[in-house]
């Protein structure tokens, strides 16, 4: 994959973009949501229901990726602090 095909996101996450291999996913949606997707397609907002759903998933990833990166950074910080506590307790026991 060429560098121009990679979408740069802040933090740890780099998402592939463009001509990536597609995987089939089966999901269940409420009838009302399917009708809305069909209306988007019918009125030309999207060329297909699949493209509408892919767009919704991309939007979700964009919205949530910053939150996920923040959680990952907090987890890393907590792990580092845990190492410091373990070292402190071990040193205290040796005294």
Overview of the molecule:
- The N and C termini lie far apart (56 Å).
- The protein has helices spanning 31-42, 49-94; strands at residues 6-8, 14-16.
- The protein has two helices and two strands.
- The longest helix is centred in the last third of the chain and has 46 residues, at 49-94.
- The radius of gyration is 22 Å and the shape is rod-shaped.
- A two-stranded antiparallel sheet has the order 1-2.
- Strand 1 and strand 2 form a beta hairpin.
- Helices cover 61% and strands 6% of the residues.
- It is mainly α and 95 residues long.
> How confident overall, as mean pLDDT?
78
Compute the CA-based radius of gyration: 22 Å
Main pleated-sheet profile: 2 strands, antiparallel
The rough form would be described as rod-shaped
Question: Largest beta sheet: what is the strand line-up?
Answer: 1-2
Which structural class best describes the helix and strand composition? mainly alpha
β content, as a range? 5-15%
Q: Characterize the quaternary organization of these chains.
A: single chain
Low-confidence stretches: 1-13
| Number of E-type strands | 2
Percent helix: 55-70%
Q: How many helical elements?
A: 2
- First-to-last CA distance: 56 Å
What string, H for helix and E for strand, traces the elements in order?
Answer: EEHH
Topology of helices and strands:
Elements: E1 6-8, E2 14-16, H1 31-42, H2 49-94
Antiparallel strand pairs: 1-2
């Amino acid at each position: 994959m060429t560098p121009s095909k990679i979408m740069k996101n802040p933090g740890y996450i780099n998402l592939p973009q463009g001509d990536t291999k597609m995987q089939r996913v089966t999901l269940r949606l409420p009838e009302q949501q399917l009708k809305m997707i069909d209306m988007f397609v019918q009125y030309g907002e999207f060329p297909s229901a699949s493209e509408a759903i892919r767009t919704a998933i991309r939007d979700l990833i964009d919205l949530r990726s910053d939150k996920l990166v923040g959680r990952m950074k907090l987890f890393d910080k907590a792990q580092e602090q845990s190492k410091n506590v373990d070292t402190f307790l071990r040193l205290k026991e040796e005294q």
